[in-house]
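Changelog entry: the TonB-dependent receptor record was regenerated in this release. Current contents:
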Amino acid sequence: MLLTRKTQVACAVAVALVATAIPFTLHAQEAASSPDANDEAAVEIISISRKRPESIQEVPIATTALGERDLAAAGVERPSDFIGLIPNVSIVDAANVGDTQVNIRGIISTRDAESTFAYVVDGVLMTNPNSFNEELLDVAQIEVLKGPQGALYGRNAVAGAILVTTKEPSDITEGRFEVGIGNEGYMKANGMITGALSDNAFGRLVVSTSNFDGHYTNDFTGEDDVVDYLEDFSMKSRVIWEATDDLKLDFRAAYSDVQGGAINFNAVFALPTFETIFQEPAFFKDVNDHDFIFAFNVPGENNQETTELSLKADWDLEGYDVTAVVAYNDLEETLLSDGTSASFYGYELTPQCQTDRATLNNAPTAIGGADRTDLFGNFFAPFGVFPPGIEFQGVYGPYTPTACDGYQFQERSQSDFSGELRFTSDDLDADLRWIAGLYFVEIERDVVVAYGADTGAGFLQQAYVPPTGPNPTDLLFSDTFETSVYSAFGQLEYDINEAWEFAFALRFDREERDVSNNVPNVNASGLNGNAQGPINPAFGVTPAGIPDRSRSFSQLQPKATLSYEASDNVNWYASYGVGFRSGGFNSIGTEATLDFWFNSLGTGNPGDFVDAQLQVTDEYDKEVTTALELGMKSTWMDGKLKLNAALFDTQVEDNQFFEFFAGPFGLLRAVTTIDELSIQGFELDFTYQATDDLKLFGGLGLIDSEIEENRNRPLTVGNEAPQTPDRSFTLGFMWDYEVSADWLLNWRLDYQYVGETNFHTLQGEQTPTIWDFFGAVSPNIPPGPHSQDFSNAKRDSYSTVNTRISLDSENWEVGIWAKNLTDEQYLQEVIPAPEFGGSFIHPSALRSYGMDVTYRF
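Regenerated structure tokens:
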């Protein structure tokens, strides 16, 4: 179901109108009144990290929890908002709306592979990675668990788990309506209503819509709402039915329709020899000094439609509780953007490329050019685009306003059905407590990555477009992935005495994975001079057809924890845990493409001149993480100061790492593995209630990592784990001031620092590039070697400040807020492409500010 923007806004307004039509009751007003400044400080946060309620200061896991008041005061609306509050946890959100990569203690989520953390909403494990980047609506608490959590949370929890608890429906009718505005065209409206549906059934409905034009402008079209824009419509409902005194049913349904910008990258070369030959520093430039120009002619569009349904049943039986969960999720996602093929002259002689180059070039007017430095930068610094008549001599950039770079289309659609049956002992004071359960999930995912010609006739957004179509396909990867997972798990917690507890958890996962090819055995359109064979190179290896593939992965995931209550205020723990992430498949044709262009086969292929010696295959192994941790949780000064710390040592086998390849074929995404990765670190966090009105908080994260073995790129041994800053810290305060008996002023400020970050395993070591081939066969490129050097591709450290000030009464709240208050300009992501000899980079959001008004009843 696709809803128009007018319909979405109407739904949000309708919720508000229905809400305001309901008569006020004194009880509802009391329930909706603003919290006292000291209420949350006095209430102990309850953790559900071990699938039962426990004090967060006693649970033997490194976990950070944010309660409802913290989330509201910090202005948390999307995952990146709360991730930035936690040391040793970071996020990259660059390519498209759902393509987030979360790093927990040096283990990073991987594009085109499984997640590295379990994402659980109201006790339901979400199996679709895009679910994580939905708007956070009506949330009561968020917990971030660090370290392998596979024993209880299963596959993919190699780095940790993130648990989101939303607000339960109430038996009292109440509601909320909020509107907000901000800079760069930001607008939002959301409404919530909850109440009794019957004597024993209660419902809650939330509707939200938001629009954001973005910080950046397309310099070619002049449009300011087509680069990093975002339009989001979400509906979430929850119904709880207390069927009997012992049985409670919890039904959740959610729908979201998101549209946003996609592939907003610029390119920066890392070719020292080009800098020397052409006497141009731009060929070996620090990525942090880049001046961004977005000037694409193909609109970057990312469309996502998500549907989520789940039912959780809780039975309270004699001596134990039974929980049963079934869930269904469906994602339909497409992505269209400009391409990169112009860099290798693939479409140089097509009529549309020739027409565009007549007016869209940065050659000086003195030699007959158009001097469009606003679109390409200064001539040959580093990009140089000539008018027609001077062929195959320019240095083209990606994502340009010309048709010379073609286009790319991606589709990622997934549906999954999962279930869990869990038995839990219900006596929390017993010396022996236990959990046992079974879990399954069935996943079907279609992945399409297509590249082709931009003829100026528009774009059919589909996997294959024939040569007679407006945008013919020249390279296509299209596969259907099917996954079946079966698990059994359990945990025992035993109180040895009043001070010591030993807990042991164990899980067995078996994952069966199949992939089938959907690419037709046809040739490319003939428009791309570099792509004259089948549209998938795998047909060159198996011309009779590409066979289906199947693999199974299984793993035991134990976790042992010994905890010691040294006093009423100090708890120590030591743990050993194992996490597991399934292996999988790259798109069929990946290995054949890379071998032809980059590896020496002795057949006269371009790779004979490059000889990169890559070992990228069409499948990759499972990842296994083993971690040791020693932690302390403490409370001091009559409960005013909470101080927690942890030391950890993590060893990762076959760490899955995303690699990006660019060449005459276009772009190619693949998952490789780092054979052995070692990570050690330290964490510290504190919360101090300095006065009744002032709370201080902060945290520190330190990481020391090293690649110990990497057969795919042996030169990287000794380097740091990619995308892992060696230090990060946060600091902030929350201050309350009673303006009057009816109004409370709240001010929260958060400061975050993130250290220098490498984004690739190569961090200055020189390796071959495709320019070695062009230097051997083209008179326009001097002979090589032309190796890349990523010593200038490290992201600089950066710091941001977010703040929110609100004035709150019984029914009204007015808030003003700012994110990145100091307007820090830093890179969000660097995607090095070694064999291309450069990186694709994306900027972070600039300063945002605005005002929200909320009415509660």
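Confidence is low (pLDDT under 50) at residues 1-42.
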